[in-house]
Amino acid sequence: MPIILPETAEASSVFLVVNKENEQGAAAQAVSGILDKLVQQANLLAAGASPKYDLQYESITSGTNELDYTDFLLTGMIALSIAQGGMFGMVDLVEMRRKGLIKRLRMTPANMGIFGLSDMVMRLLFSIVQIILLSLIGVLVFGANLYINPFTLIIVFLIGTLSFNALGYFFSSFSKTTEAYMGVANICSFLMMFLSGVFFPIETMPEWIQPFSAVLPLTYFADGLRESMVYETGIATASLWAGIAVMVIWGAVTFLLGSVLYKRKAIAADR
Protein backbone atom coordinates (compact mmCIF):
# COMPACT_ATOMS: atom_id res chain seq x y z
CA MET A 1 0.00 0.00 0.00
CA PRO A 2 2.48 2.70 -1.15
CA ILE A 3 1.89 6.43 -0.60
CA ILE A 4 3.27 8.74 -3.33
CA LEU A 5 3.98 12.28 -2.09
CA PRO A 6 4.19 15.38 -4.36
CA GLU A 7 7.52 15.57 -6.18
CA THR A 8 7.57 19.38 -6.40
CA ALA A 9 6.16 22.31 -4.43
CA GLU A 10 3.73 23.05 -7.27
CA ALA A 11 2.23 19.53 -7.25
CA SER A 12 -0.96 19.25 -5.23
CA SER A 13 -1.87 15.55 -5.19
CA VAL A 14 -1.00 12.76 -2.81
CA PHE A 15 -1.53 9.26 -4.24
CA LEU A 16 -2.48 6.19 -2.25
CA VAL A 17 -1.97 3.03 -4.30
CA VAL A 18 -4.11 0.10 -3.12
CA ASN A 19 -4.53 -3.40 -4.50
CA LYS A 20 -8.01 -3.88 -5.93
CA GLU A 21 -8.52 -6.95 -3.75
CA ASN A 22 -7.78 -4.97 -0.56
CA GLU A 23 -9.67 -1.83 -1.50
CA GLN A 24 -12.45 -2.45 1.04
CA GLY A 25 -10.13 -3.82 3.71
CA ALA A 26 -9.89 -2.29 7.18
CA ALA A 27 -6.25 -1.28 6.74
CA ALA A 28 -6.89 0.48 3.42
CA GLN A 29 -9.89 2.35 4.83
CA ALA A 30 -7.93 3.42 7.91
CA VAL A 31 -4.92 4.70 5.93
CA SER A 32 -7.23 6.47 3.47
CA GLY A 33 -9.06 8.24 6.31
CA ILE A 34 -5.81 9.35 7.95
CA LEU A 35 -4.43 10.75 4.68
CA ASP A 36 -7.70 12.53 3.95
CA LYS A 37 -7.54 14.27 7.32
CA LEU A 38 -3.91 15.27 6.77
CA VAL A 39 -4.75 16.73 3.35
CA GLN A 40 -7.64 18.72 4.83
CA GLN A 41 -5.38 20.12 7.54
CA ALA A 42 -2.77 21.06 4.94
CA ASN A 43 -5.42 22.88 2.86
CA LEU A 44 -6.54 24.87 5.90
CA LEU A 45 -2.97 25.88 6.68
CA ALA A 46 -2.33 26.84 3.05
CA ALA A 47 -5.45 29.03 3.04
CA GLY A 48 -4.43 30.68 6.31
CA ALA A 49 -7.57 29.49 8.10
CA SER A 50 -7.63 28.14 11.61
CA PRO A 51 -9.86 25.16 12.45
CA LYS A 52 -13.14 26.13 14.12
CA TYR A 53 -14.06 22.65 15.40
CA ASP A 54 -11.99 19.90 16.92
CA LEU A 55 -12.70 16.32 17.95
CA GLN A 56 -12.73 15.52 21.66
CA TYR A 57 -12.31 11.85 22.66
CA GLU A 58 -13.75 10.45 25.85
CA SER A 59 -14.11 6.84 26.94
CA ILE A 60 -17.34 6.00 28.76
CA THR A 61 -18.96 2.87 30.10
CA SER A 62 -22.59 1.77 30.19
CA GLY A 63 -22.29 1.04 33.89
CA THR A 64 -21.89 3.29 36.89
CA ASN A 65 -18.27 2.25 37.39
CA GLU A 66 -15.34 2.06 35.02
CA LEU A 67 -14.31 -1.46 33.96
CA ASP A 68 -10.55 -1.91 34.18
CA TYR A 69 -8.92 -4.84 32.37
CA THR A 70 -8.04 -6.38 35.74
CA ASP A 71 -11.74 -6.36 36.64
CA PHE A 72 -12.64 -7.72 33.20
CA LEU A 73 -10.13 -10.55 33.46
CA LEU A 74 -11.00 -11.40 37.07
CA THR A 75 -14.71 -11.83 36.38
CA GLY A 76 -13.90 -13.81 33.24
CA MET A 77 -11.59 -16.14 35.15
CA ILE A 78 -14.20 -16.64 37.88
CA ALA A 79 -16.76 -17.58 35.23
CA LEU A 80 -14.30 -19.93 33.52
CA SER A 81 -13.28 -21.57 36.81
CA ILE A 82 -16.87 -22.26 37.85
CA ALA A 83 -17.77 -23.49 34.35
CA GLN A 84 -14.84 -25.90 34.29
CA GLY A 85 -15.74 -27.12 37.76
CA GLY A 86 -19.19 -28.03 36.50
CA MET A 87 -18.10 -29.59 33.22
CA PHE A 88 -15.26 -31.65 34.73
CA GLY A 89 -16.86 -32.33 38.10
CA MET A 90 -19.24 -35.09 37.01
CA VAL A 91 -16.47 -37.51 36.03
CA ASP A 92 -17.19 -39.52 39.20
CA LEU A 93 -20.47 -40.66 37.68
CA VAL A 94 -18.59 -42.27 34.78
CA GLU A 95 -16.35 -44.14 37.19
CA MET A 96 -19.36 -45.24 39.24
CA ARG A 97 -21.01 -46.66 36.14
CA ARG A 98 -17.80 -48.42 35.09
CA LYS A 99 -17.60 -50.12 38.49
CA GLY A 100 -21.25 -51.13 38.36
CA LEU A 101 -22.37 -48.81 41.16
CA ILE A 102 -24.90 -47.06 38.92
CA LYS A 103 -26.43 -50.41 37.98
CA ARG A 104 -26.85 -51.28 41.64
CA LEU A 105 -28.33 -47.86 42.31
CA ARG A 106 -30.94 -48.49 39.61
CA MET A 107 -32.14 -51.51 41.57
CA THR A 108 -33.18 -49.18 44.39
CA PRO A 109 -36.18 -46.81 44.38
CA ALA A 110 -33.76 -43.89 43.89
CA ASN A 111 -34.56 -41.52 41.02
CA MET A 112 -31.58 -40.98 38.70
CA GLY A 113 -32.64 -37.42 38.01
CA ILE A 114 -32.68 -36.59 41.73
CA PHE A 115 -29.37 -38.39 42.15
CA GLY A 116 -27.79 -36.23 39.44
CA LEU A 117 -29.36 -33.10 40.88
CA SER A 118 -27.90 -33.83 44.32
CA ASP A 119 -24.42 -34.13 42.81
CA MET A 120 -24.97 -30.81 41.04
CA VAL A 121 -25.92 -29.14 44.34
CA MET A 122 -22.71 -30.44 45.92
CA ARG A 123 -20.72 -28.89 43.07
CA LEU A 124 -22.65 -25.68 43.69
CA LEU A 125 -21.24 -25.52 47.21
CA PHE A 126 -17.72 -25.94 45.84
CA SER A 127 -18.38 -23.10 43.39
CA ILE A 128 -19.29 -20.78 46.27
CA VAL A 129 -15.84 -21.40 47.74
CA GLN A 130 -14.27 -20.76 44.32
CA ILE A 131 -15.91 -17.40 43.75
CA ILE A 132 -15.02 -16.19 47.26
CA LEU A 133 -11.36 -17.22 47.01
CA LEU A 134 -10.86 -15.88 43.48
CA SER A 135 -12.51 -12.58 44.36
CA LEU A 136 -10.26 -12.16 47.40
CA ILE A 137 -7.15 -12.95 45.35
CA GLY A 138 -8.20 -10.53 42.61
CA VAL A 139 -8.88 -7.67 45.03
CA LEU A 140 -6.05 -8.18 47.52
CA VAL A 141 -3.27 -9.32 45.18
CA PHE A 142 -4.06 -7.77 41.80
CA GLY A 143 -5.95 -4.67 42.93
CA ALA A 144 -9.21 -5.40 41.15
CA ASN A 145 -12.24 -3.27 41.97
CA LEU A 146 -15.54 -4.96 42.70
CA TYR A 147 -18.88 -3.16 43.09
CA ILE A 148 -21.26 -5.99 43.81
CA ASN A 149 -25.02 -6.08 43.48
CA PRO A 150 -25.69 -9.03 45.82
CA PHE A 151 -29.15 -9.98 44.55
CA THR A 152 -28.12 -9.94 40.88
CA LEU A 153 -24.93 -11.86 41.68
CA ILE A 154 -26.84 -14.59 43.52
CA ILE A 155 -29.25 -15.09 40.60
CA VAL A 156 -26.50 -15.15 37.94
CA PHE A 157 -24.26 -17.37 40.06
CA LEU A 158 -26.95 -19.95 40.83
CA ILE A 159 -28.23 -20.19 37.25
CA GLY A 160 -24.76 -20.29 35.72
CA THR A 161 -23.37 -22.85 38.14
CA LEU A 162 -26.33 -25.21 37.82
CA SER A 163 -26.25 -24.88 34.02
CA PHE A 164 -22.63 -25.98 33.77
CA ASN A 165 -23.19 -28.75 36.29
CA ALA A 166 -26.02 -29.95 34.07
CA LEU A 167 -23.64 -29.87 31.11
CA GLY A 168 -21.20 -32.09 33.01
CA TYR A 169 -24.08 -34.42 33.96
CA PHE A 170 -24.93 -34.68 30.25
CA PHE A 171 -21.32 -35.53 29.35
CA SER A 172 -21.31 -38.30 31.94
CA SER A 173 -24.50 -39.82 30.55
CA PHE A 174 -22.94 -40.93 27.25
CA SER A 175 -19.24 -41.25 28.15
CA LYS A 176 -18.20 -44.88 28.59
CA THR A 177 -14.78 -44.14 30.09
CA THR A 178 -13.16 -41.42 32.14
CA GLU A 179 -10.88 -40.61 29.21
CA ALA A 180 -13.84 -40.10 26.88
CA TYR A 181 -15.52 -37.81 29.41
CA MET A 182 -12.39 -35.72 29.90
CA GLY A 183 -11.88 -35.48 26.16
CA VAL A 184 -15.38 -34.10 25.54
CA ALA A 185 -15.14 -31.73 28.52
CA ASN A 186 -11.72 -30.47 27.39
CA ILE A 187 -12.93 -29.73 23.87
CA CYS A 188 -15.96 -27.79 25.12
CA SER A 189 -13.91 -25.94 27.72
CA PHE A 190 -11.22 -25.01 25.19
CA LEU A 191 -13.73 -23.67 22.67
CA MET A 192 -15.68 -21.62 25.20
CA MET A 193 -12.48 -20.34 26.81
CA PHE A 194 -11.52 -18.41 23.67
CA LEU A 195 -14.96 -17.71 22.18
CA SER A 196 -16.85 -16.45 25.24
CA GLY A 197 -15.06 -13.20 26.06
CA VAL A 198 -13.14 -14.53 29.06
CA PHE A 199 -9.78 -12.95 28.16
CA PHE A 200 -10.82 -10.22 25.71
CA PRO A 201 -14.09 -8.60 24.55
CA ILE A 202 -16.14 -10.45 21.95
CA GLU A 203 -16.34 -7.24 19.89
CA THR A 204 -12.61 -7.57 19.10
CA MET A 205 -13.11 -10.98 17.47
CA PRO A 206 -13.63 -11.42 13.71
CA GLU A 207 -17.25 -10.83 12.76
CA TRP A 208 -17.75 -14.37 11.46
CA ILE A 209 -16.85 -15.80 14.89
CA GLN A 210 -19.12 -13.57 16.97
CA PRO A 211 -22.36 -15.46 16.12
CA PHE A 212 -20.82 -18.61 17.65
CA SER A 213 -20.05 -16.68 20.83
CA ALA A 214 -23.67 -15.53 21.02
CA VAL A 215 -24.94 -19.08 21.63
CA LEU A 216 -22.39 -20.23 24.21
CA PRO A 217 -23.50 -20.25 27.87
CA LEU A 218 -20.11 -19.08 29.17
CA THR A 219 -20.54 -15.83 27.20
CA TYR A 220 -23.60 -14.90 29.21
CA PHE A 221 -22.23 -16.23 32.47
CA ALA A 222 -19.11 -14.05 32.19
CA ASP A 223 -21.20 -11.04 31.15
CA GLY A 224 -23.62 -11.64 34.00
CA LEU A 225 -20.80 -11.78 36.56
CA ARG A 226 -19.35 -8.53 35.18
CA GLU A 227 -22.74 -6.86 35.37
CA SER A 228 -23.30 -7.98 38.96
CA MET A 229 -19.73 -7.70 40.30
CA VAL A 230 -18.43 -4.55 38.57
CA TYR A 231 -21.35 -2.52 37.17
CA GLU A 232 -23.77 -3.15 40.07
CA THR A 233 -26.48 -3.81 37.50
CA GLY A 234 -29.96 -4.30 38.94
CA ILE A 235 -31.94 -7.44 38.30
CA ALA A 236 -34.57 -5.60 36.22
CA THR A 237 -32.40 -5.41 33.09
CA ALA A 238 -33.57 -6.89 29.78
CA SER A 239 -30.11 -7.84 28.51
CA LEU A 240 -29.28 -9.54 31.80
CA TRP A 241 -32.44 -11.63 31.71
CA ALA A 242 -31.80 -12.53 28.08
CA GLY A 243 -28.44 -13.99 29.11
CA ILE A 244 -30.03 -15.78 32.06
CA ALA A 245 -32.61 -17.27 29.69
CA VAL A 246 -29.86 -18.69 27.47
CA MET A 247 -28.15 -20.30 30.47
CA VAL A 248 -31.47 -21.74 31.69
CA ILE A 249 -32.11 -23.27 28.27
CA TRP A 250 -28.65 -24.83 28.19
CA GLY A 251 -29.02 -26.18 31.71
CA ALA A 252 -32.56 -27.53 31.30
CA VAL A 253 -31.93 -29.17 27.92
CA THR A 254 -28.66 -30.85 28.91
CA PHE A 255 -30.06 -32.04 32.26
CA LEU A 256 -33.14 -33.55 30.59
CA LEU A 257 -31.03 -35.18 27.88
CA GLY A 258 -28.70 -36.62 30.52
CA SER A 259 -31.64 -38.00 32.51
CA VAL A 260 -33.15 -39.57 29.39
CA LEU A 261 -29.86 -41.24 28.44
CA TYR A 262 -29.40 -42.61 31.95
CA LYS A 263 -32.97 -43.92 31.89
CA ARG A 264 -32.49 -45.61 28.51
CA LYS A 265 -29.33 -47.31 29.71
CA ALA A 266 -31.25 -48.50 32.74
CA ILE A 267 -33.93 -50.02 30.52
CA ALA A 268 -31.28 -51.64 28.29
CA ALA A 269 -29.52 -53.06 31.35
CA ASP A 270 -32.77 -54.56 32.65
CA ARG A 271 -33.32 -56.31 29.35
Q: Work out the helicity level.
A: 55-70%
Q: Major beta sheet, specifics? A: 2 strands, antiparallel
| Mean of pLDDT | 80
Number of helices: 10
Distance between the termini: 72 Å
Overall, the morphology is elongated
Unreliable residue stretches: none
Element order: H for helix, E for strand: EEHHHHHHHHHH
Q: Percent of residues in beta strands?
A: under 5%
Strand order of the largest sheet: 1-2
Structural class label? mainly alpha
The total strand number stands at 2
Computed Rg? 27 Å
Overview of the molecule:
The chain is mostly helical. It is built from ten helices and two strands, in the order ββαααααααααα. A two-stranded antiparallel sheet has the order 1-2. The longest helix has about 35 residues, at about 240-270. It is elongated. The mean pLDDT is about 80.
Summarize the model shown.
With 271 residues, the chain is mainly α. It is built from ten helices and two strands, in the order ββαααααααααα. The longest helix is centred in the C-terminal third of the chain and has 33 residues, at 238-270.
Give a topology summary.
Layout: E1 3-4, E2 15-16, H1 26-47, H2 69-89, H3 91-98, H4 101-106, H5 112-140, H6 150-174, H7 178-195, H8 210-213, H9 217-229, H10 238-270
Antiparallel strand pairs: 1-2
